[in-house]
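Usage

Read records sequentially. Each one opens with the input sequence:
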Amino acid sequence: MQTEAGNELFSYWLELKRDGTIPQQREFEPARVRHMLPDLFILGKNDAGVMSFRLAGTRLCGLFGHELRGRPFPCLWHRSQRRQAG
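and closes with the structure output:
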């Protein structure tokens, strides 16, 4: 991680990650990283197996000019690069 915020988020992730397993969604407490929420996003696979935004911070949505929640993650890339992105 190259930023203080990145290191802080990674440390929180490691706290949640027990016995090498990925933390469950219900274990993540947004209040613990409240000051980072505008810049955070969380991805998940939808029913079709496509990675999509489960959560997208307001600053991130502002950069792209629209709400990203529910949209496929690969939509951020040029059509020729989408397959690699998602």
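Summary fields computed downstream for this record:
- The chain has a mean pLDDT of 87.
- The first strand starts at residue 41 and ends at 45.
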